[in-house]
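[Automated response] Your request has been received and processed.

Submitted sequence:
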Amino acid sequence: MSSPISIVMRSMNDGPLIAATLRALYEQDYPGGIELIHIDSGSSDDTVEKIKETNPWKLIQIRPEEYVPGVVLNRGMRAARSEWVVFLNSDAEPANRSWLSELVATAQSEEKLGAVFSRQIPRSDCQAAYAYDYDRCFGPERESRKWDHFFSMVSCIVNRRAWEEQPFREDLQYAEDDEWSRRLKSHGWAIAFSEKSVAIHSHNYTFKQARRRAYGDCFAAAASRHDAMPRPFDWVIGFVKAVLRDARQDFTWCLRENRLPEWPQDYGQPRVDDARESRRRRVRRWPNHRC
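Generated structure:
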């Protein structure tokens, strides 16, 4: 890929973080250069001003109420010109100058790759429970490789041919990347992980934010899966078991990483962001259950 590659970035009120992301993006060692397509969802801070300072190839501004993940992702793909299109969240900072070239190199490694996603490492202020989730999902000995499926849209590259065959659904508010990548695989496209392409990205959610995100993810995942018959589900027993399991795993990880004082404040929090596998197991068995 010696010609410019299209990069689609989404943002809303990411002023404190976007400058570092944009700076790292324009410092990439990718020889073909980039064409940045930025879609901002009605930021009210200085996000748009910081975007304009970099003179992006395209700046698309929509109102906050217009934001639907699949709609915006499809719009970004239509605006892009390259055969492979990169998606990078505005709060996901490339960790080094080779983030893009490593992502592209992995995309070229197989014949029928539909998408490739980067490794993510948490920020230095990430709470222990969430830092552990990133280790489970993206670490050197990541647990996610044992799961039936895992993908993240935060930092990834998409094959245009795969997208033309299977565009993003536009009726989901959460888990659109999970549904889309599962659908790709069911139609013969492969999904790959680029371990050497690294982005810095994490969130510290409040309990209310975590609950809303977890509920939305599970509801969307349940709505998008119809390959299993619903079965009775004792949610009280399931919830208690999940909390105890997470508490035990958090304790072990905090002990190993010398972060044990953080364990009491973090244990039992709902798992959000990219570590969704425990919820997916329940959704897969009981697709009509609202987590």
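Summary generated for your ticket: The chain has two domains: 5-200, 207-285. The first helix runs from residue 15 to 26.
If you did not submit this request, please reply to this message.
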